[in-house]
Amino acid sequence: MTDNAYDLEKALSAIEDSDLRYPQNWILERYLELSTDPDASARYLFQERKRGAGIPDLKPFLTNWNELVSFYGSQQRSPNKELVDKVHARDDARCCITGLEGSSLDPLIVSPLPSIDKSVTKFQSEILDVFLGHDVARELRDNGTRPDGPQNYWLVRQSAAAALSQGYIKVQWTTVPEYTVSLILIGGPDRPSILDKMTTIQWYTFEDHSKSGIALPDSSLLEAWASFAEPVRWSLVAKDVASRHPQPLPITTAVTSFIHRQLSGFAALAFSTICRLLPPPLRMQIYSHMWRLGARLYGSSSSLKVQRLPFGMYLKEGSPEQHRGLVNEYGTLQQLRKHTTVPVPRPLDLVSGSEATYLIMSRIPGRPAGASIDSFTEIQMNSFKRDLQQYLRQIRAMPKQVAPDHSICNAVGGPCHDFRISASQPWDEEQGDFFGPFVDEDEFNKTLQTRALPSIAHTSGHEIVFTHGDLNLRNVMVQNGRISGIIDWENAGWFPDYWEYTKIHYVTKLHKRWLKAMDEVLCEFGDFKSEMIQSLSYESTACKDKKLPILSSSVQWNSKYENGSGVLYLVTLQH
């Protein structure tokens, strides 16, 4: 390959530097990344289509790609009664996507497998060949000309078929006839309810339950859909973003929301004030009953240690080993509310028993940023970044009034609770996940060193500032396009000024829009690239030392979104 030849990395850089705006630039990037041969796709896009000097005009390509994606499943076949009977017999009255039986509100239907049943232009045919590979693309094009049969259909719930057509569900072969069904939760928070009944990934096997030789679903159609599901999702996100126009919140809605927050806050404060008059064992019992009531009223949290309660409260549970982490979070919230205007939960109570510690706090309205950031307009994204930058200025300026003999410590002057630190150390049951406090940065840096790379160490001399320590797509809450709160402060404390930046990249790997926004937010506070290189060296070594996977594939936000908990960890690996 010559120096001027385009490979994937160079092509992605060129797209980033182009005049394409979000999400069109992201759609084109994902076309290349999801292609069968990304480097070949990059050369096709930037060299074979190049006319003259400079970068080719990408918009005609993008227009044709978007049109091709919109064709997918737009014209669906209608099976005759004989085919319907065969598919019902073959699939044994269960949904091939969810594994569920039908219901009166969500019946099973015989649905066509996703395909392109529409003629495409020569240019679009080329795009399809490059994306899928010639053989799969030919099978997809030729499918519409073949006789219809049970191989083109499957039995699915009506709601699952709709979710599939919107790109929320990807079906992928493992070894024919075995396949996986995974969720693609890209876009805004308003998602089909059927997804709540599905796990992140499920394994199934196609078989002819009738034992009469009925053809199984066409493997080539599902292979093509595995590549097309995400582009379909992004195309719908693009339409959603393009249709939005910034509008002020109606005054009645704003007033109603304010009154509700005030009443909810008063109820939470009154209830917790009364409870704090009671002895700890009785409070533990009351909160335990409240947990069960909250689970009945609002459903269980996707985190085992957080539950929404009545009266606008949340309960966060910790084991005896995690007690110091909840003490730190309680103290952090008190200090933040005293010294800043950062929207955080009100700490209402902290009580411990022999088997658990309960932290009671007020509920923050809104949803985790990960549930909405894909569908933010650029105006909303700019507001989000300005809000977060303003809050971080206040957080980093917090006065240190604890542990004068230790420069690096948690919010209440105790040991630091941070999985980045514990990842570099062998497990010690007595010490657990708590390290420090540290007299100075030199002592802190020695703790970060790994046995595998003893010569690699962070430099000293950084400013020590107050740090959240776990800013990610789960812990920043948004409502109506603005930040409504920052939650989950267990890892907070005084750390070197680069720590927030490197921890953001430590937790979230390749959600490009989030990481780019965080780079822009934190650039005001310094250039932390050299510290980032050191951190990546530590991370790679720690993962190898502890035989953990290093995430190098695309990571997308994926969770059962709920209001105010901030302890949501599910991700989906795309490749």
UniProtKB/TrEMBL annotation:
SUPFAM superfamilies for this protein: Protein kinase-like (PK-like)
The record, for CDD domains, names: APH_ChoK_like
In this chain the Aminoglycoside phosphotransferase domain maps to 319-496
Superkingdom per UniProt: Eukaryota
Among the Pfam families in the record, one is: APH
The protein's name in its UniProt record:
Aminoglycoside phosphotransferase domain-containing protein
The taxonomy runs: Eukaryota, Fungi, Dikarya, Ascomycota, Pezizomycotina
